[in-house]
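Weekly puzzle thread! Below is a chain. First person to post its structure in token form gets bragging rights.
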Amino acid sequence: MLSRFMSGSIRNLEREYSCTVRLLDDTEYTCTIQRDAKGQYLFDLICHHLNLLEKDYFGIRYVDPDKQRHWLEFTKSIAKQMKSQPPFTMCLRVKFYPPDPAALKEEITRYLVFLQIKRDLYHGRLLCKTSDAAMLAAHILQAEIGDYDPGKHPEGYSSKFQFFPKHSEKLERRIADIHKTELIGQTPETSERNFLQKAQMLETYGVDPHPCKDVSGNPAFLAFTPFGFVVLQGNKRVHFLKWNEVTKLKFEGKTFHIYANQKEEKKIILTYFAPTPEACKHLWKCGVENQAFYKLEKSSQVRTVSSSNLFFKGSRFRYSGRVAKEVMEQSAKIKREPPEIHRAGLVPSRSCPSITHGPRLSSVPRTRRRAVHISIMEGLESLRDSAHSTPVRSVSHGESFMPRSRSQATDASEGTAVISDEAYSPSDSVLPTPVAEHSMELSVSRQINGAPCSIEEEKESEAGTPMHGEGGDFGADGRSAQEGAGGDSALSEVEQVNKFVLSVLRLLLVTIGLLFVLLLLLIILTESDLDIAFLRDIRQTPEFEQFHYEYFCPLRRWFACKLRWVGGLLINK
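Winning reply:
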């Protein structure tokens, strides 16, 4: 606390700050900002540097000293939002994923969204089935190295690229086959557009995962997409709510609530628990912004949202910016020569490398690796049949959730959809706060296949400084997971009791305050000589005169008598 106070005092003495923003191609943009500069000023500088006009889809993200991620608010001072000492380090990321990224007006915008989705694929946020993964990776190959050339691309060339957190030799061969035969002649722009068209059809497109637990203590990932609110557990999307069905988002401490109305007047309340209150508030703010951006017709319809009840101190937040419909209308009016694009090509990246020079590392022999891989897939098959589903409070019975519907895909009849062959578990480096519970099979699989990046690599990319503490324990065994779940449940019960006590105390304080105000008003009416119009009108009413002479005057005489008696006792003593 003292160090933060001192660091804030030091910042206030400086007139200018150095700020570094890491862009999507991992180049860095460094500038100097004034002490009172707001987030919008920095964002406009970056967009001017990139020659970007369709900028409403993007945002600036930073990580505080507690490893909690935040989106920079453009209407507030940068220095007041940052909790670390200058120089400040942030990163440019896609904040609102376009519903149809391939239909974006300018190529520069599509290229930046392509880089973001490629990053999502690499870090495990964009999870898909093996067939889709091979096609996506082949499009990346075509965009970065062009057509297959036997003289430049020897046998096994695709194994030198790292597209996913883990992959097999069979997948590498499939990627190379598609690149050699199906994508010949495609330009980088065409390959990127086809990549975007394929990616937007995936269930995890646009997912920025927030780790939480449901009311049963099961781990889950909550996310907001261009099409609605989703919950991912295991290898399934267990819940999906369209934006027009979500009526309210609310949080209290670590508890996050989603209120929704569905067909046949079904009212639904989903409840989840975030790891920390800060993570829960960040989740709530992301939900409020996404709902306003995708749901509203005009930015003039945006209202300030409060998370508080009558007796709970809450937060107030308002989305500032244009909504999706306005952004698309504005993009249609752009008329200029397409800006030149400097593609990254084969340049290695610190946080999301496109190529790794050398073979994949593995400490497990090939034969043993295959045997364990078979056991893992069997475990995933059983997980597919018994994935935990979050309990739902509903006023009616039956199916509570409908799947996402798009013009390119037919509607499914079930609310639960299988998103991949494996459990959804993005690299813990992308999570705002640590999550301790993960499956044993996933831990073994991660050890066998080898993770291409360190646990804190993405967070280092966003924070700009190395993180020495571990972000989460992905290799916890079943016993420790059960103990953690038991401790969390006991802790949640204590929190519920504390909340109830605080609510009762607040209610009592409000009641006492109201009684005090009424007593003060009564004394003013009966004892003061204030000649104010509304007081005079009250005094002249028959009801007040009856109350004054029949109740108040006898009560005043009784109090006066008691006070004289007590005074006499004190004087005699």
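Puzzle host: Confirmed. Bonus trivia for everyone else. The two ends are 54 Å apart (CA to CA).
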